[in-house]
Amino acid sequence: MAFPWMRVLPFALLLAVAEPAVPVRAQSLPATPHTPDLLGIYPGMPTLAAHAQLQKHSSAVYVQDISGSEFGMTIPDPKNRDQVTVFLTQLPNDPYVWMIQRAQTFDPGVSMSKENLLTAMRQKYGQESLMSDHGGGGLFYYWVFDPNGKLLAKADSRYTNCSGSLFITNMNRGPDRPNDILDLCYGSFLGVTLYVNMGDAQLVWAYSVELVNMPYAVAAATITMNANKAAGEKARQEELNKADQNKPTF
Fold first, then answer.
1. Beta-carbon neighbour count of residue 242 at 10 Å?
2. Where are the domains of the chain?
């Protein structure tokens, strides 16, 4: 089943196009750019391929299935905890990746410099499109890509409000009601977000990286929502039909 994620659409129009007349089993999700990726895993990647790719991250720790909606790996080094989580689309869609997250936490004395972290990110993705300093709330860097995976040198500052993490619970219940920000995020945010928790001006205590394709996620979530609603309505109608057959005798 093809989703219209490759185009930048208003959220309301995206829902109208993505919503099926009847719930059906998706045969496949649309092809997506193999770049950008995070540890070789990209949105739109089949689950088995992503599972195998993540296993390459460690020869000592195995990938664990967290639930039907995600799997991951935790490397429990007490001085450098490394955790990766991969999030999957839900039925009736076939399970494909829609978001990847990685987080590392360092103990004092074995920290990472901010310069080394940013250098590695820029070597991987290029110069960031946006940056936001939250003061005590940490530093946020954003790499925003067009639908073909090309980095945008400049991006709408409102993209700093887009977050895949906030959409996790929406994968079963469907997208939130649109507004100007969600219309932008849901319609076109394909991006990498880096959050940096600083120990001081140079040393990083912890960081997290998130790669998400929001139009892809919204389209999949909309189909899941519609299928769940249809199933609920069918069950309700069956209950009413049975109730109509029960007649009291007085």
1. 9
2. 11-240
